[in-house]
Structures are given as structure tokens and as C-alpha cells.
Amino acid sequence: MADTKRHESAVDRIRQRVEEKAARRAAAAEAARSGGTPPDPERLPDGAPGPAELPGVHARTPTQIPWSGWKQIVKRAWAENKADNMPIIAGGVAFFGFLSIFPALIALISIYGLIASPETVARQVEDLSAQLPEDAAGLIEEQLTAIVANSGSALSISLVVSILAALWSASGGVGNVVTAVNIAYDEVEARSFIKLKLTSLALTLGAIVFVLITFSLVAVVPAVLEALPLGVVGTILAQVARWVLLLTVFAGALAVLYRVAPDRDAPRFSWVSLGAVVVTVIWAAVSVGFAVYVDNFGSYDKTYGAIAGVIVLMLWLYLTCYLVLLGAEINAEAEHQTARDTTDGEPEPMGDRGAVVADTLPPKPEPEKGDSDPTRK
What we know:
By secondary structure, the chain is an all-alpha fold. The protein is built from 12 helices and no strands.
């Protein structure tokens, strides 16, 4: 009976939050039509904690939050990360992401192959995948050989159908990322199937554009730099700038994901950029360390044999997904730290912003040991 009650209360909670979202949106639309005087968005809710208890409660941007406030944010984000079961969710996202990689490669090679030969595309993808551990890179190269052998460069109905099918399949993996980011932001998905699928497809196309830009930075730019008379110092500076630009593009892509994916009123870019930058720096360090470990110290070939490449690629995807979701938790708790409106558009009072972390303050600035739900009432 206890288990039944818990399941019923969870269902009731989801239903209630969906109804609350619909009610907030209807109230906002009605207020816009009536033209009444809106409440003061600068007014803090009754009983709100002060700066001494919640440093940064008056912050308008993340940079205005003091270090003591960031200490609370990191603690809450880590506690929420565990309470939301993000390590397990990241594993699920990584699995479906793995299933989506090769349909995405098919779509990428088919689209890019309209302006370049499939062999050229495959060679540039191999140059990009060379940044991964050897086993994972070998797996991708094998699949690329099979894809290129069955691809063409002429636009036809069959090519369009295959591109659309590949995009649809790849968007399934992106849809799981959207669901996980919703969990990080404490949001319940209330969008229609069509709107949600269009969002996933748009993010999938955005990911393909990101990969194309990455191609240029990783595979094309080095050849251009070699042809230019830059000298030793100039070449080193250009290489450093190339990798800094690559990480900047990655951070920008994450910021777009954090802003678009959750079913809520979109946060301002300043409130999603910091978590994206932090995750990008950590991800770069972890990826390099993981590649060095696998190539020099790991024994995946001996342990897993022919499927070593699959295991290594899955582990790298898991680390990537885990860090992406941790960045979403950091962004969410940063918004939770301030009473000011963090959403896009004109400032709204708390309770009317259409976002859980923007409409509430944490009941406890720092989680306590043993909390099962550390930052939500």
C-alpha cells in the first residue's frame, strides 16, 4: 500500500505542476489582454531571506553573486545531482546517444556530401574522431567506411528520404537530453508531441551545424595554417586560438541547449552561459585525461576484445552526458539563488515567470546531510 501511495502522489504531483503551468500561462495572457497594472517585479516575496542568509539574492547577473553564494550554489547543485539520480540518467542518455551517433553521421555525410565528396567528408570526420581514444576512433572509422560506400552526392528523392529518416532517428537521442535537462531544472514536460519533436529536430540540426564548424577548426584550419608563412610563434598562437575558438563554440552550443531544452520561459543567456563555460573547461580536461588513460594505461582490448571500441565510446559519452547535466544543475541553482527575474523579456514578479527555479527561492540555502529532496519543498 505504501508503494501505491508513493506512485499516486508522484502522478498527482506531475498533474498538478502541468495544471499550474497552464494556469500561469492563461493568467499571463489574460493580464496582457486586460491591460491592468502589473505587480512590481522588484518586490521580494514575504519572508524572503536577506543577503546574509542567501548571498546574491538581489543579483541581476551571475557575476553579481559573491563567492559565498557560489559556495551554496555548488553544494545545492551537487546534492540535486544526486537527488535527481543524474548518474543513472546520464547513463540512459549516453546509451540512446550512442544509438543516435551513426544516424547523425549518415545525415551529416549526406548533407555535407551535396557540396563535397563523401570521401572528403569521411576523411575530415576521421580527423575529428582522432581526438578520441584509439578504440573509439577505430569504431567510428569502420562505420564511416560502410556509410561512404552506400552514399551518393546527387540530390534525389531517395537521398532526401534517407536524410529525413536519419534526422528523425538522431533526434530521438536529443529528445532524451531534453528530458534530462527538464529534470535538472525541476520542470515537467507539458509541450505537445509535435512541439517537443520539432524542438528535438531543431537541436539535432544545430548539433550538425556545430559538427560542421568543428570540422573546419579541427580538420581544415590546420592545412590552411601550414600553407601560411606565420613562423613558429605565429603558428603556435594560431593553434592556441583555434582550440580556444573550438571550446568557445562548444560552450555556446551548451548555452543554447540549456536555454531551449527545458519546458519553461527561456532564461537569459547570461544565466546559462556560466554553467556552459564551467562544463566546457572540465569536459576538455576530462576528455584529454580519459584519452591518455585509455591509450596508455587501460586494458580494454584485453578485457572486452572486439567490442572494446564500443565500450570506450560509451564511457566517453557517459562522461560527456554526466557533465552536461551537471552544468544544467549548476545553472538551475544559480537562478534559484536570486529573487530577480532571470527569464527573457520584461521582468515579472516571482510566481509569474513560468520557471520553477526563477519563481522560487531555495527553502534551505545549503542542503543538510540525509536530505532526499535537498532544494525543493
